[in-house]
Amino acid sequence: MASKLLNRFPTLNNTAYHILSLPFLRSTVASPFLVHTRLYSEDVSSRVSNRSSLNQVELAKFSSIADTWWDAEGPFKPLHVMNPTRLAFIRSTLCRHFQKDPYCARPFEGLKIVDVGCGGGILSEPLARMGATVTGVDAVEKNIKIARLHSESGPETANIEYCCTTAEKLVEEQREFDAVISLEVIEHVADPAEFCKSLAALTVSNGATVVSTINRSMRSYATAIIAAEYILHWLPKGTHQWSNFLTPQELVLILQRASITVQEMAGFVYNPLTGQWTLSDDISVNFIAFGTKNSQ
Fold first, then answer.
1. 185, CA 20 to 30 Å: which among 77, 129, 210, 214?
2. Residue list for the binding site for S-adenosyl-L-methionine
3. Binding residues
């Protein structure tokens, strides 16, 4: 086990220079102008435009396997196995931020949380069991139907609000949440910057935003695509496009431009001997970031 499970960031300035001065960023990026060019395609503000971040090809891909969301041995097995580790990070960071007791059975009591890109609800349900008032949204109607059906099986999850909609539409409805969570979603959207603007707009002032994704590194290409999709067959071929991955520094910049300051970041590391994921300082492949929305 790593000596430190969470990498705490110092407060980040609004300039790329100060972000890149962080050790883990400086080692991979020599100049702010080398950051992936899609970050600079538009000026990012807390206001959300009419543009949509939806990627129709990705929606069709996930719609075709929606019926398997709760099959622990199916295409979503990696997410089922990773879920306890993802929840450990979320529980730790949200309890610290909202001054909740992480050891009680329902630490998220009183918090409104939205799970953006909820799929079949495999994250929404444990969040509800931990006491949160949960809204799960997904643009794939079949995913929402599966999520609703499964949530009805337990009294603690029956009240989850599932909506077939997008983050942009929720912003138009002026919805706000204490915490906005979107895991393994941003690599599948058409416009990451626009998507993060929506996440920020949904987050109350001083609220929390949690995003996880896959680093665009050679190691991730070897493990998350070649090994996971073509050798081990953990995922259907074509699930991920390496060019759509974001590096940690790119995600920090995108979120910062959307008024979200990243406070903590951790990696997920898989142990093939135990078949389990653990939190780590290694962010070279899978990683998760916790940020807070700047006060208005």
1. 129
2. 86, 117, 138, 183
3. 86, 117, 138, 183-184, 187-188
